[in-house]
Structures are given as C-alpha cells and as structure tokens.
Amino acid sequence: MSTETETETETETETETETGDQQGSQTVDPVLVGVDFDLIPWEKWQKPGAEGRVKIAYTQGLRVRLMELPAGFDEHEWCLRGHQGYVLQGEFTIHFEDRSVPCRPGMGFVIPDDEKHRSQGAQGEPTVVYVVDKVVPTA
C-alpha cells in the first residue's frame, strides 16, 4: 500500500469515528451543540394565565427554549414536568405546593420531575428565561 492510500484510509476511519458512523455507508446528522436563537423564529406560547413567545430547539432528547413572558403573568395550571433553566431578565416566583422560590436575573433553577409547580411573574418588566427539559414522548 502506498503512503497516500494509507493516509486516505486513516482519514476515512477518523471521519467515521467522529460522526459515529461505523458502517461507512450511512450519513449521520451531526448532534446539535450550539443553539443560535437569532436564527429561530419566535412562536406564540400560551398557557392559562400566561401568554408569551418562545424559540424552541430539539436536540439529544431535550427541548431547549428561550421564553419571554409578560410582566405579571400568572400560570393557573400546575406542571409536573421537570425543568432546569437560567433567568436572563425579569423576576418571577416558582410556586410549589409547600413553598415558593423567587427567581431573578443571574439565577439558575432546577425543578425535578413530578414536583407540582407553576410560575408567577413580577410586575414591571417581562421575564426572559432559558429553559431545558426532556422531550416527553407522545403516545
């Protein structure tokens, strides 16, 4: 085998390993790592007591959202899905059955699955949060 052929074979093997394609014949989409929210259009987001807008990306079994909710929003329904996130703007309170947790810009939050919660925004300015949760399969 010539040096050129050996180099080509090594390069093909490295490429297959990087993409996770061990067969060499299938095309594997790259895993979304960076989410450029500037390229994602705003969509309407609505729950009883809270109407806002959201940008959504899906990757690796996760839903990644940039959410903007108006000042004073007040979710009426309890949520049981776990979330984790980071507050970019505005203040809001996460209400649980037995306690309430105030959140402000610069704070992160982690809500476990199956813990009933709902959120309520403070008056004054909109709330902007980055939120990540697991994709829930639909049956």
How would you describe the overall organization of this protein?
This protein is mainly beta and 139 residues long. Helix content is 12%, strand content 40%. The strands form two sheets. A six-stranded antiparallel beta sheet has the order 1-2-3-9-4-7, with no helix packed on it. β2 and β3 form a beta hairpin. The longest helix has 17 residues. It is globular and about 50 Å long. It starts with a helix and ends in a 5-residue tail after the last strand. The N terminus is likely disordered.
Provide a quick synopsis of the model.
This protein has one helix at 3-19; strands at 43-47, 50-59, 62-69, 83-89, 92-96, 100-103, 108-111, 117-121, 127-134. With 139 residues, it is mainly beta.
List the topology elements:
Layout: H1 3-19, E1 43-47, E2 50-59, E3 62-69, E4 83-89, E5 92-96, E6 100-103, E7 108-111, E8 117-121, E9 127-134
Antiparallel strand pairs: 1-2, 2-3, 3-9, 4-7, 4-9, 5-6, 5-8
